[in-house]
Amino acid sequence: MGETAGFTIKQAAEQTALSEDTIRYYEKIGLLPEADRKMNRHRIYHGEDLRVMKMITCLKKTGMSLDEMKPFLGLTNDSDLTAYPDLQQKLLQHKENIQQQIDSLQMIIDVIDTKLTSGRMPDQCELAEPTKKMPRAQLI
Amino acid sequence: MGETAGFTIKQAAEQTALSEDTIRYYEKIGLLPEADRKMNRHRIYHGEDLRVMKMITCLKKTGMSLDEMKPFLGLTNDSDLTAYPDLQQKLLQHKENIQQQIDSLQMIIDVIDTKLTSGRMPDQCELAEPTKKMPRAQLI
DNA sequence: TGTTGACTTGAAGTCGACTCCAAGTTGTAT
DNA sequence: ATACAACTTGGAGTCGACTTCAAGTCAACA
């Protein structure tokens, strides 16, 4: 039972900013592979597992959905994306979605500013419906 | 039964870009007042009702939650906000939330760009967790 | 021996904002 | 008479990403 044997789910949770429940949930929905078990059926995690979890944590912060991030989880942090043109394309697309989101939010700011300064709220509020799934994040 | 008698829920839905179900739902949760009824118990709407619904449609597009928009629904489109300092303050706060959202999304763009151009995904992905409720909208 | 404490499981509950459904009523057209 | 459309109601279902719960297992410690 030395320190080299791996990490408990609690330790994994601490290191990855996920909760234990969330880790089990990710395993259940197939985002994480089935974890190795100790003799007592407790899950045990190794460095590679933590790397994937940290990648999830990071991609989640970029507003990517759990489904969308599945293809990326095989990559190491500094693996060369140009070797995977499809992933590169997906990431570029994700970036463009976010850029569109920024543009749209800027339009909203303009509408609000118009109301705040000129007192006028446009009759036809020329903004589109919110899309079903857009990233949400916040400054640290 | 002339054209001056008001609007059916279907007509209201058409004019406000809400669905009939949504209008009934808004009434149920108290976002809209209880509608007048015709003799046959059908809801009937007047100009003022449509104005409120359009205001909802507009505020929704700015990412405001149904709860948050309740205080604003008494205002006409061009009523002077400076007469209502609390509402002005709320709207300013809403705007600042959106601005923070933009800043945060810009950070995400930067992280993704770093990966796309230098191939490096930061170990510590220095972005905060998504907040529970942030606006989502899209360009028209 | 008994009681923690860490872990296990499957299932149910949460959030907001709808959306859909089935059954019923009313008014009009054929 | 009868079909049909438009509306009514209460209630259930949906979405994603968890969170919470109850009940069980297992090893270590007093």
From TrEMBL, chains A, B:
Residues 6-75 form the HTH merR-type domain. InterPro entries: DNA-bd_dom_put_sf (IPR009061), MerR-type_HTH_dom (IPR000551), MerR_fam (IPR047057). The keyword DNA-binding applies. Keywords: DNA-binding, Repressor, Transcription, Transcription regulation. Transmembrane segments: none annotated. The keyword Transport does not apply. One of its GO terms (molecular function) is DNA-binding transcription factor activity. Pfam families: MerR_1. PANTHER family: MERR-FAMILY TRANSCRIPTIONAL REGULATOR, REDOX-CYCLING DRUG-SENSING TRANSCRIPTIONAL ACTIVATOR SOXR. This is MerR family transcriptional regulator. It comes from Paenibacillus pectinilyticus.
